[in-house]
Design goal:
Elements: H1 3-9, E1 12-19, H2 23-31, H3 33-36, E2 43-47, E3 54-59, H4 61-69, E4 79-87, E5 91-98, H5 102-106, E6 110-118, E7 124-131, H6 136-142, H7 154-168
Antiparallel strand pairs: 1-7, 2-3, 3-4, 4-5, 5-6, 6-7
Helix pairs in contact: 1-6
Family: Belongs to the AHA1 family.
Protein name: Transcriptional regulator
Domain Activator of Hsp90 ATPase homologue 1/2-like C-terminal: 20-165
């Protein structure tokens, strides 16, 4: 099976990470810009946490500089979407429309679900489910399959960096 065939057949990606943190801390790290600016691709997330509310991610100066170093100009908003469901600190469902590249933006809107479950001993599971129907290039990017081409490690990398930040106070870059 070719990469193109694989990209068109994988329409849902599921990632789970276990984090020694409270559900509230994990929720804040996902939804508050002072947290989202620190890990992963360092975007500034802005959520209106009501059904129908807007969701936007703006690039930080660091994000812009790293993209520019690779020859990419970023728009003022790199991801936009709508909050479909918000049940703090347990579940967040949003649409997701990446605007960083015209080809990816043309693929349209997908859906991401974050589920936080409290487990014994101060540990929580964080499960991210990304429904990627009709977005084969985005599926490759968020799946980390274009990491060797400079696209980053996708959801697995972002969640790993989030876990590291919450458990140690530092990210991979610090």
């Amino acid at each position: 099976m070719t990469v193109a065939q694989l990209a068109t057949t994988v329409t849902t990606q599921v990632y789970r990470v276990y984090i020694k943190a409270t559900p509230e801390r994990i929720w804040d790290a996902i939804t508050k810009p002072e947290w989202t600016a620190r890990y992963g691709y360092t975007g500034l997330a802005d959520y209106d946490l009501r059904p129908g509310g807007a969701y936007k991610v703006r690039p930080t100066d660091q994000f812009r500089a790293e993209a520019a170093a690779k020859g990419h100009e970023l728009p003022d908003v790199v991801i936009e979407g709508e909050v479909l469901e918000a049940d703090p600190p347990r579940k967040l469902v949003t649409t997701f429309h990446m605007l960083m590249d015209p080809q990816i933006a043309a693929e349209g809107t997908t859906v991401i679900t974050h589920e936080i479950k409290e487990l014994p001993d101060g540990v929580c599971s964080l499960t991210l489910t990304h429904e990627l129907e009709g977005a084969p290039t985005l599926a490759l990017i968020v799946g980390g399959r274009l990491e060797d081409q400079g696209a980053g490690g996708g959801h697995a990398w972002v969640l790993s960096d989030l876990k590291t930040l919450l458990e140690t106070g530092k990210t991979f870059a610090e």
